[in-house]
Amino acid sequence: DKEVRAIFLRLFAQLFQGYRSCLQLIRIHAEPVIHFHKAAFLGQRGLIENDFLTKVLNGMAFAGFVSERGPPFRTCDLFDELVAFEVERIKAEEGNPPKMIKHVRELAEQLFKNENPNPHIAFQKVPRPTEGSHLRVHVLPFPRINECRVQELLQEGLARSQGAPPATRGDKKCVVPAGPPVGMF
């Protein structure tokens, strides 16, 4: 599934390359508003008559995309890197399927690493119950939970977690790279 996600990541990176150059920050209100200049984006790419891209840009999903990815100072991710720095690579791979597949696999590997930062921690899967297991008579009733013991375990866990470093990595905010201007495409 990571390779399929990587293909869509490349597709959207190609589709929206240069979108940052068409963002406008309006500071009329206490909270700044980010506006996307659709006509400039379509005009500079020569796609004014493209119904598909026009409908994508007019959709609610794209409005959410702009509000989420529009701020100039936020946590950057793989998509931002693709849009800003991989323009030439994606263009060069258009006529070369083996290179494209290699890049998709690299992206899929990065997606996997982002979701599984600690690969040495294995998650044990719960086995699926056999057919008819719910009909067995010898199944014991679920035991009563000892509330005192649960509280003790919670307190122990909290005490351990307060002294330990945070489990999640802290995302550092930075200035989002703008990438090449829209007219380049």
Keywords:
single chain; 185 residues; mainly alpha; two-stranded antiparallel sheet; 8 helices; 49% helix
Topology (elements, then pairings):
Elements: H1 2-15, E1 23-26, E2 33-36, H2 38-45, H3 51-58, H4 60-69, E3 73-75, H5 78-85, H6 87-93, H7 97-115, H8 147-163, E4 173-175
Antiparallel strand pairs: 1-2, 3-4
Helix pairs in contact: 1-5, 1-7
What does the model show?
This protein has a domain of 122 residues. The mean pLDDT is 81. It has 185 residues and is mainly alpha-helical. A hairpin with a 6-residue loop joins strand 1 and strand 2. The protein is built from 8 helices and 4 strands; from the N terminus they run αββαααβααααβ.
Short description:
With 185 residues, this protein is mainly α. The chain is 49% helix and 8% strand.
Summarize the biggest pleated sheet. Answer: 2 strands, antiparallel
What's the overall geometry? elongated
- Computed over alpha carbons, the radius of gyration is 24 Å
Number of strands: 4
Q: N-to-C terminal Cα separation, in Å?
A: 29 Å
Helix/sheet category: mainly alpha
How much β-strand is present in the residues?
A: 5-15%
Average pLDDT for all residues: 81
> Helical proportion?
40-55%
Number of helices: 8
Low-confidence stretches: none
The SSE string, one letter per element, is: HEEHHHEHHHHE
GO biological process, one term: regulation of Rab protein signal transduction
Protein name: MTMRD protein
GO molecular function, one term: guanyl-nucleotide exchange factor activity
InterPro entries: dDENN_dom, DENN_Domain_GEFs, Tripartite_DENN
